[in-house]
């Protein structure tokens, strides 16, 4: 039986796991969760993931949550893909950027997506939390500059080969226009960072493999 992925596909946290599964050609059954309808709040789902969040992977009796861990689990099924390097330093480098994603990249992006896109379009809340947007924008700029520096002279985040780090960090940028909308004062800087470097080198690699799930 193929593995099951419980997810709301358009979310970056789901998108990165699904993108990796698609890239590796791993068959999976998508169990769609509509968070707006509270489908992640059922007792059955809580038994799988006590956080009542998605994504969650189920492989027979084995259950795993946290998107970056799910990505490592998927990459472990196809070690020859090189998405999770097998030498210790290489593996730690990929893992380091996945940790960095959770600590520094994902949180400001989440706020910007929530305030600029989810609230007005799905929650019927037109007002933005401006202090939260300002803080997230500042954090996003700091993180984007670090990532931009890391990408200098490299094809991918950790070097010359595509790894989980690219999927993890590139996934939320499929919503880059939403992020851009929040950073109008420094739009040129962001355009340079996102369009010329990050978008070209990272996002397209993810989107190319799973654009269909966004339709
Ligand atoms: N660190 C977790 C975050 C998961 C997460 O925050 N998922 C959100 C959607 S993007 C969720 O399920 N939220 C439901 C809720 O908060 O009720 C991961 O990367 O898997």
List keywords for this structure.
215 residues, alpha+beta, Glutathione S-transferase Yfyf (Class Pi), Chain A, domain 2, 4 strands, binds glutathione
Structural summary, described in words:
- 58% of the residues lie in helices and 8% in strands.
- Helix 4 (88-123) runs antiparallel to helix 5.
- The protein has a four-stranded mixed beta sheet, with helices on one face.
- The chain folds into two domains: 3-81, Glutaredoxin (3-Layer(aba) Sandwich); 88-214, Up-down Bundle (Glutathione S-transferase Yfyf (Class Pi), Chain A, domain 2), CATH 1.20.1050.10.
- It has eight helices and four strands, in the order E-H-E-H-E-E-H-H-H-H-H-H.
- The protein has 215 residues and is α+β, with helices and mostly antiparallel strands.
- It is flat.
- Glutathione binds at residues 11, 13, 35, 40, 52-55, 66-67.
Secondary structural class: alpha+beta
The total count of helices amounts to 8
Order of helices and strands: EHEHEEHHHHHH
Beta percentage is 5-15%
Number of domains: 2
- CATH class of the largest domain equals Mainly Alpha
Major sheet description: 4 strands, mixed
Radius of gyration: 17 Å
Question: CATH topology of the largest domain, which one?
Answer: Glutathione S-transferase Yfyf (Class Pi), Chain A, domain 2
Report the span from N to C terminus.
26 Å
Mean pLDDT across all amino acids: 81
Give the strand order of the largest sheet, numbering strands 1, 2, ... along the chain: 2-1-3-4
Question: How many beta-strand segments?
Answer: 4
Task: Report the bound ligands by name, code or SMILES.
Answer: glutathione
Helix proportion: 55-70%
CATH-derived architecture of the largest domain: Up-down Bundle
Low-confidence stretches: 181-193, 200-215
